[in-house]
Amino acid sequence: MSLFFRRPEQRSADWSDTGLSDRNTRVSPERAIYLAPVFASLRHIVDFISTLPVDSYRTKADGSRQPAELPELLRVQDGISMPGLNQWLGQAAYGLAAYGNAVGYVHSADALGLPAVVHWLKREDWNFEEFTKQWFANGTPVPTSRIVHIPWMVPPGHTIGLSPIEHFAAITRAGLSAQEYADVRRGGGIPPSILKNNKLTLDTEQAARVREAAMVAFASSRPFVTGADWDLSVPMIPPSHANFIETLKLTATQIAAIYGIDPREIGGETAQSLTYTNDESRALNRAANMRPYLVRLESAVNRLLPEAQRIKLNVDATIRTDTKTRVEIEQMELNMGTRSVNEVRALEDRPPVPGGDFYNIPAPNTEPIIRQGETS
What we know:
The protein has 376 residues and is of the alpha+beta class. It is 36% helix and 14% strand. The chain has a 3-stranded antiparallel beta sheet. The protein has a 3-stranded antiparallel beta sheet with strand order 4-3-8.
């Protein structure tokens, strides 16, 4: 079903509006992404989620899990005309982190009537009327069954998730201002250099011509030579204005707190007491920080699948240990029966072996102890 590309003449006021009346002062995700900590946060979240291996399984009647091929919904995303499964997951993660909502449009369904092709929409291409509970895609009202919605943090009584960037616009705006101040082409509130003629008084037009000529000469690394009795001075940035560096660090730390990630991942600073003994502990911390995003995404995708089929983003693949520790863990899992030989071989990128799908479930080696007065 194709959509008509029209928009409603008026959209209801978004409850998540920050209250800023000046459109130039409102910080949108499109503008905020030019702030390094925001871009780093989005890159961190999107890269982590989109590069995770996807495990697919079916739940059997006895509650056990059986490995299965990827469901049609995820296989289709890897088609020739589709963005690819990794990019599809990354787009969902981006919408979740940047706008607080990943909204997809169901283009087609499979034989069971479940979504088969889902395209994630740009923020300007979707809207939701909270009062009427009506979704719009590209300006056209669409039924809820054609929408896949993954919200971030939803206050009681609402459907649409909070936009982390818009709701913390003051932090982002401070960082953008500090970053713009550091731009040597702009010079912040202080001119990067002062070219003064001690004999002549220049009008606005003459000053503009001299400034343009000087900029051309300086940009080409050639000396600027003209007139007589010119003084060139480059003012120093006052110590009070040099705080923009600390502002950037503070902004990065605050943005990391908003997104729930380690500040050092995006250029911020953290308490000295928080240290990692090795790369494995840092990977475990990173995986723990990403868990809320992974759970939301997995739950949303699983709701679109047949009842017995589920997918899981394999976080364990990101946790690397040294060879000795890895082998010891694999041996313990084999002994406990939590993994089969072929599952362990798959982790080591080795082919399966005949009979390797057996789970070594140890039998109890002692009889249960029955105390006096108890029955078995």
